[in-house]
Every structure is written in structure tokens, then in C-alpha cells.
Amino acid sequence: MSGYYPPPGAPPPGQPPYQQYPQQGYPQQQGYGQPPPGPPGQAPYQQYPPPGPPGQGYGAPPPQQGWGQPPPGQHGYGAPPPGQYNAPPPGQYGAPPPGQYGAPPPGQYGAPPPAGPPAMPSPGYDLRQRSNINVDRAADDLRAAMKGFGTDEDKLIRTLAQLGPLEIEAVKQVYKARHKRDLMKDVHGETSGYFREGLEAMIRGPLDQDCEVIYESLKGVGTKESALDDTLLARSNADIHAIKAHYQQRYRRSLESDVKGDLSMKTERMYDMVMAGRRAEESEPVIPQQVDAWVKEIYDATEGRAGTDQMTVCAVLTARSNGQIRAIAQAYQAKYHRSLEQVIRKEFSGHMENALCFIVGAAVDPAKNDADLLEDSMKGMGTKDTALVRRVVMIHWDRQRLQQCKAAYKHFYKRDLVERIKSETSGDYKKLMAVCVSLA
């Protein structure tokens, strides 16, 4: 089966085909976990059966103007400017660039692939970026919600939930300049519980929140492994380097040394590979001969031998782009009739098993991966509230990602995500989580 790959846009191995509908929206900067953009006009990545009328597909915004959305052609403080964080990538979501899938670039047959241009940091991961949206009204609304006797929790939720990564940084500065107060301290003093935890996660913004999550996960006895996985796995090189630099600046200590001190030997080595930030860029081509070699490497390190060469598998999967991992997963399924995730579940255990499945899942079907993580936060006895807050806030920054996660959740779990979250939460915490998930 050498050289065989399902066509671009095919569903993940083992999944039934999804209907495809054109995605609408603005072109987006490629962020972490996102596949490389294709040429405009192609159909997007696999689509789950849409809940709406024909033409309103998975990944397409609703036809009516929704809560918190400005009129067409405008954008206020509650919406990102065109071309930033909440727009779908142009072209086929999940497909490599044209002419590079299933065939080497012209004139380069058998040659090593050229290094692709590096991705920019995701919005909110370069603190030098500035919002061009006036956030004075948002800052005033936040102060009004907490001024005087009592707190207007609904106004706090409405205002903060609408702010994008760049706008939240601007609001903190404007709030301090106009009201001579610290927004984080005011919110901390006026709220409590998981409601406070969610609001503070939003106020930190995505970069500072990632560092906070990592730092807290390493404190005390035992490492909160899922928190490390959520924040460090399947990230772009640019985001990894931004997280390392901000962590060093904030805590005056190295991220690598802190993580190493809390992990077992082989998992520590895997995270060393992750934190190096040297994955293939999403702009690099997917070349079948290389994919076949990586598939053989994984097979020889797992099913093709007695025992498992764990570090070889880690080295392959932590160094490849999402597009390359998708191709590896498809080729492995086609050649050995087992999914790559099944092989990992059989050959690995514990944190390394979960981490490698996370890497593969985030590449093969990122929307399902997000949906699975949210369900994992809520299933069984009791809700893992800190994990739910972390995951909802992380996904809410990217409205396109959120929209696809909701559709995947509906498809795989046969329930509405907002209603599911409401059933597991209460009070202002429930309102905050529901509003965050209702944004897309």
C-alpha cells in the first residue's frame, strides 16, 4: 500500500464520511492545532451533518445576526477585526497545499523537502501586537459592573466573553488608565469559586493563562498531567517559544527545568522534544515517501518487535506537523488496518499514552479532539471543573474552532454542548461557561 493516502478532506481513519459544506468567514492567521490553508474556493475539512438548513454547514456562521455580533461589515470591541483570531482558514481544512499531497514538488522527486516558512504566533501570543479596536466602552462597562453596592455578574460575563485575545490586553491597560484600578484585582474581590476562576482565565489572556496553568499544574504533590497536555501539546513552534519566554519572564525560572523536575524519565524526554519547539512547520509539504518511512519506523518500534521502542515513536510524532501526522495516521490505517491511536493505546500506558493520543487526535480530527476533552471534563461522577474552565476558555478565544467543536460534539455525543455544560454547572459559573460556548 506504499504511497496510498485517502484523498484530501477524507474523514479520519475509521470514521464514516462527513458531508462537506463551504465554510464562510475571513481568512485566518494559522494558529496552534490548525492545518495549513489551501487555495481559496476549496471545500473545508470534513463536515459533520449540520443542524441548520442547507447551506448553513458545519463551520458556517448562522445567517441571522447573533448575540454580541456587530452588524455585517462592522466590528466592535466584542468582535475581532477581519483576518484575525476567529476566522476559518481559507481552502480545505485538513488538506495540504495543492500539488504537495501524494506527489513531490516538481523537480524535487526524492529530494528532502524545503523548510517551510515559520507560522506566526497565534493571536495573543505576541504581546507586542496591538488591537485596533476601541475598548473604552468595554473598560467602562466592566467598572460599572463592579462599582458601588453589589456586582452585575451578567454584565461582567457579557463584556469579558466578547473580548478577543488582543482586546483583553487593551482593556486591562485602558481600565487602569481610565479608572486607576487593576481589573484582575477588582474581579478577584467581587467574585468567587469557579466563576472567578473562569473570569480570571479570560482576563489573563491566552498566553499568560497557559503559563499560569503550567505553573499551577507543577505545584504541590503530583503533576496535573492533563493540564500540561492541554497547554503544551500540538502547539506551533511560535507558540511554544512564546510560552517559554513568558514563563521565564513571569516566574524567573525555566519552563523546561520546572517540567523536567515533575515528570518520569521517558515522559520527561518526550516533553523535552515538545518544548524544543522544532516541529515541522505546517507549510512544509507532505511527501509520500517520507510518510511511508515514518509509518515503517512506528511499526518497527511497536507492533513489529517484542517490546516497544517508545522514544522512536515519540521522536516521530513530536517532530512532525499536523498535516504530516494526518498523513501518517491515514497511511498506517491503510497499510496495517489499525488506527494509529489503537496502536498507541496497546503499546503505551499512563501519561505517555494519553499525550501521544492527544498529539494524534489534535492532528487527525482537532474538532473531535476538543469535543472529547470537554466531555472528559464532565463525564462520570462529578465534574472536573478546573479542567472544564480551562478548556472552555481556551477554545472560546477562536470562534471558528469553537463552532467546529460544538458541531463535532453534537455529532459524536448526540447532545448540544451548551445544554450539556449547563447540566453540569450552576449559578454564575454556569452562565459564564454557557455564554462562552454560545459565542459561535
From TrEMBL:
Q: Kindly state one GO CC term assigned in the UniProt record.
A: cytoplasm
Keywords attached to this entry: Annexin, Calcium, Calcium/phospholipid-binding, Repeat
Low complexity compositional bias, start-end: 17-33
- SMART domains, from UniProt? ANX
A GO molecular function assigned to this protein is:
calcium-dependent phospholipid binding
The keyword Calcium appears for this protein: yes
Q: Name one Pfam family in it.
A: Annexin
Domain of life of the native organism: Eukaryota
Q: Where is the composition biased (Pro residues)?
A: 1-16, 34-121
Cross-referenced InterPro entries: Annexin, Annexin_repeat, Annexin_repeat_CS, Annexin_sf, ANX14
List the residue ranges of the region (Disordered). 1-128
Task: Give the family from UniProt.
Answer: Belongs to the annexin family.
What does the record say about domains?
Answer: A pair of annexin repeats may form one binding site for calcium and phospholipid.
List the PANTHER family hit by this protein, alphabetically: ANNEXIN, ANNEXIN B11
Give the protein's recorded name.
Annexin
